[in-house]
Amino acid sequence: MDEIKNLSIQELDTPQYAAEFDRRVHEILTSNSRNYEVHHFSRDGRLLEFESRVSRVSYQGKTAILTILRNINERNRNQRFLEQSLRGKRASSAGGSSSGQEQPADRNQPFTPAGGQNPGSCKSVDP
User: Fold this and answer.
1) What is the pLDDT of residues 52-101, one digit of tens each?
2) For residue 37, what is the enclosing H or E element?
3) What's the chain's Rg over C-alpha atoms?
4) What burial letters (b/e) apply to 14-39, b meaning 16+ CB within 10 Å?
5) What is the pTM of this model?
6) Contact present, 41 and 14 (Cβ < 8 Å)
7) CA distances from 94 to 81, 98, 101, 111 (A)
């Protein structure tokens, strides 16, 4: 835990999210709160997906930003698996095949993004 105290948020962010940091801070300071889906790196370099609830708060008389992160790796992996399964069923009923499907999440395995996914992306999530 001590090593994370010495890192800035930009050092944990994927490069794409780090590049948007100043814009996001401005959005938060002008709107009080925002929800985002963000990607950070773990200590061992794995990509971690989070739902981020960010709010402007007053702390000891100063404006501060409070962030609450919820790990959504498993939820997103299962959603991709379900979408692939549904596409496979549609293709099968239309005479196609469904090979190479991603498997549902295993809590004991590190997250690996699906093929073709941009692992450094982030998107705004409507409240």
Assistant:
1) 999 999 999 999 999 998 999 999 999 999 999 988 888 877 765 545 55
2) strand 33-41
3) 18
4) beebbeeeeebeeebeeeeebebbbb
5) 0.56
6) yes
7) 20, 11, 17, 32
